[in-house]
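Risk register update: the risk of archive-format incompatibility is retired. Evidence:
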Amino acid sequence: MTFKRFYCTILVLILLPGLVYAGVEWQTLQKIKLKSRALDVAASIDGTLIFSLTPGVILVYATADNRFIDRIPVADGYTRIACAKDQRLILSAADPAVLEIIKYDRIYDIDIANRAFKGAPDAKVTLVVFDDYQ
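Archived output:
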């Protein structure tokens, strides 16, 4: 092997790692068909909820349940959505220039069938006490 060929081989081996690109593995977890065009999407700070802004409504998707859980009606014209701490959504519109801040709270359904209770069975509010931690 000549010196020139040896030198070129060493140079290629030194430069080769710089030319190699790292890849990523990925997989689609779920694809959801929307009934209307999504204008913007944001995820909650903890990643448990995804908010899809569509004209006139925010669709709320629960990642743990893999399903839409609610709709938040909003005025038309908003084009951007962002999540902030303390469970707040920030909506913005360019024309007219408007910001709207929405506070949301997650509501959980608790099955109380066949459980002891006081009061009317069809009451609007149900308080549940978890006190049997055995």
